[in-house]
Amino acid sequence: MDGIRPGLIYISIIAICYYCELSVCHSSGNLSTNHQWQKCIRRSSDIECNYIPNDIPTGTKTVHLRNLNSIHFPDNVLRKGSFTTHNWGQVKQLEFSADDDWLETHETVKVFYSLCLSGLQNLEVLRISISDRIEFTPQTLAGLNNLKLLDLSGCRRFYLDNLVNSLNQSGVVPNLQSLNLSRLNSYREGLTHTDWFFKVIADKQIKELDISSTGINLLNVTALFKNCHYLEYLNISRVKLNSFLYEYLYQLCPNLKYIDASFIIFPSTITADFGPTRVISNTTIAFDLNWAMTNHLRTVEFINLAAFVTKRTSYPSWSGCFSGN
């Protein structure tokens, strides 16, 4: 028994020190009169922190920064220099989030400043889910050359033009494939998806686009069809649509495989000069596979057209899906 005890004591000391370093560390710096605690919890190759550590353990691939307190960021701005070590440069996924109930009594990062993420050279997934107001600068995403997925689905007070201006910079996120804007700016006025927005989608060769559960003042359908050459996945479900622009086109999204257009809320009545029906309301829509537009959707493997509704009506019980190929 005596030969086992030193090993147990040694392991216990390591465990205590590891917990001290990664799980609960007292904050440093000027934190006014409040005693704030900085915490990190590690699970395998993932860690979750309520502050940004100077460094992270070797082998960390996913970091979740939750409820970052603004007292650590002058003027609520995240600036360049927060992610500078070699270990930060190996991170694959990074998420910023803030709980709504926590935001009732605290403030978090509001501005992601130029090059603030540039130390994350191998980052492939960036998620931001903050319902409070946030902003990007034109160079916020600069340096993220390996980024494949940008998920802003929880940013309910974030202007679309602000994002487009950041994406529209030369050389920024050259390998971006997926853009999730579900619920974007849903606590403010509706979005306007113009030709400028869809031109950026084409220039970045985006394959997956999610704009579900958003309020859209104006959707430029013509611009979407002209700039969807690389698009394979499109989710526009539960969109509240006020108005749209459309011209008949013969070239439609040649690589599109998946469309979810379920539970879209249209204006009370839409009269259209295309397709097998003229009036779209909360009724079943005839879907003629010989219709000219669908002839250009032969690559599509799944279409969800469940429950089209209008603003002044409740959801109908009818739903339907079409699976091709």
Mean pLDDT: 77
* Structural class label: alpha/beta
Based on Cα principal axes, name the global outline.
globular
How many domains? The number is 1
β-strand amount: 15-25%
CATH overall fold name: Leucine-rich repeat, LRR (right-handed beta-alpha superhelix)
- The total strand number stands at 24
- CATH level 1 class label: Alpha Beta
Q: What is the CA-CA span between the terminal residues?
A: 69 Å
Number of helices: 6
Order of helices and strands: HEEEEEEHEEEEHEEHEEHEEEEEEEHEEE
Largest sheet, if any? 13 strands, mixed
User: How much is the radius of gyration in Å?
Assistant: 24 Å
* CATH superfamily placement: Ribonuclease Inhibitor
Numbering strands along the chain, what is their spatial order in the largest sheet?
1-2-3-4-6-8-10-11-13-15-18-22-24
Uncertain spans: 1-35, 269-292, 312-325
CATH architecture: Alpha-Beta Horseshoe
Structure, described:
- The relative contact order is 0.07.
- The protein is an alpha/beta fold and 325 residues long.
- Mean pLDDT is 77; it is low at 1-35, 269-292 and 312-325.
- Helices cover 15% and strands 23% of the residues.
- It has six helices and 24 strands.
- It has a single domain (48-322), classed as Leucine-rich repeat, LRR (right-handed beta-alpha superhelix) (Alpha-Beta Horseshoe).
